[in-house]
Write a structure and sequence with these properties.
The chain is mostly helical and 54 residues long. The chain contains three helices and no strands.
Length: 54
């Protein structure tokens, strides 16, 4: 597995915060991730990995 270095720690934190803050607006966390991923320029799978511990 490769280390993800495309996104700075600040972008990672912001993306995770966006998902957590918007979860209530969606039926699932995955739906929130799918909505936010294009806004930061990544796939939903990548965004899901950004929030998981390495």
């Amino acid at each position: 597995m490769t280390k993800n270095t495309r996104f700075s720690p600040e972008v990672r934190q912001r993306a995770i915060r966006m998902v957590l803050e918007s979860q209530d607006e969606y039926d699932s966390q995955w739906a929130a991730i799918c909505s936010i991923a294009p806004k930061i320029g990544c796939t939903p799978e990548t965004l899901a990995c950004l929030g998981s511990p390495a």
